[in-house]
Amino acid sequence: MERILITPRSFGKTDPAPFELLREAGYELVRNTTGAILTKEAMLEAVSSVCGVIIGVDPLDRDVLTAGKKIRAVAKYGVGTDNIDIPYANERGIKLSVTAGANANAVADYAFALMLACARRVCEIDALCHRRDWEKRIGADLFGKTLGIFGLGAVGKGVARRARGFDMKVLAYDVFWDDAFAKANGVRRAAPDTIFSECDFISLHLPLNSETHGFVGTDAFARMKQTAVLINTARGGLIDESALVDALSGQKILAAGIDVFEEEPPASEALYTLKNLIMGSHCAASTTGASEAMSLMAAQNLLRDLR
């Protein structure tokens, strides 16, 4: 019996249908039971006997794919493929799929939640109230402010739609510009420098690749308003984390809401000391609806490609 490796911890967590679908198709399932992202060493061992992989953010580089000599298909649980060596997978003839659109609304919701939480100091106030400190804390406004969106794909578009309810002026940058959507939703196309310098809130929704790695660094922070709020629910490598620590600790920007880090959990002790940083555990897509949709789509994609 052929085997399939499933690494995402939330895969099929609230609905067993994707597991049943794979088993009924005749496959034995190998699941990640560690409760954590698998290390490269664990992946090297886990892929040795499988024909297909449903992958989260665990490493699937050339070494791991080489160890998986029987792998014919990989289904990404999500849309970010920076943890997969795509050129080598293509060279091997391994089919690759993503769960496009399955978690877009959940991530857009979370991006907006981070904006509100940062602006209104929700986490800080909550922590103080739990210590019976009832002093008023002054926050920043969101309604009527200017939002900059980097990456106007499914999630970026969702954030732009939500911004309309807050009467925000929306500027966006994307290499593949959707003019029809922009016109219909009042989104203005802008260069990165303009977004960095003019926007009160900046939300990242770019893919991570060689061109976007470190996209927000020292120069970008220097252009931002001192009252700016930076949000990242895309990929950790988009931000130079040492520059982020410098900007937040030096009060060069107001706050940041970061759900993704280059290393998870991050090793930098400085990040954990920042009161104006709201940290997330890469959980923007972690809702019941999104997880169920991604699980089913990933299972269907993998079965299609294995057949």
If you had to describe this structure to a student in words, what would you say it looks like?
The protein is of the alpha/beta class and 307 residues long. The protein has twelve helices and twelve strands. Helix 1 packs parallel to helix 12 and helix 5 (104-120) packs across helix 7. The longest helix has 19 residues, at 288-306. The protein starts with a strand and ends with a helix.
List the helices and strands and how they pair.
Layout: E1 3-6, H1 17-24, E2 28-31, H2 40-46, E3 52-55, H3 62-67, E4 73-76, H4 86-92, E5 95-97, H5 104-120, H6 122-130, E6 146-150, H7 154-164, E7 169-173, H8 179-184, E8 187-189, H9 192-198, E9 201-204, H10 218-223, E10 229-232, H11 241-249, E11 255-258, E12 277-279, H12 288-306
Parallel strand pairs: 1-2, 1-3, 3-4, 4-5, 6-7, 6-9, 7-8, 9-10, 10-11, 11-12
Describe, in short, the structure shown.
The protein has 307 residues and is an alpha/beta fold. It has helices spanning 17-24, 40-46, 62-67, 86-92, 104-120, 122-130, 154-164, 179-184, 192-198, 218-223, 241-249, 288-306, and strands spanning 3-6, 28-31, 52-55, 73-76, 95-97, 146-150, 169-173, 187-189, 201-204, 229-232, 255-258, 277-279. The radius of gyration is 21 Å and the shape is globular.
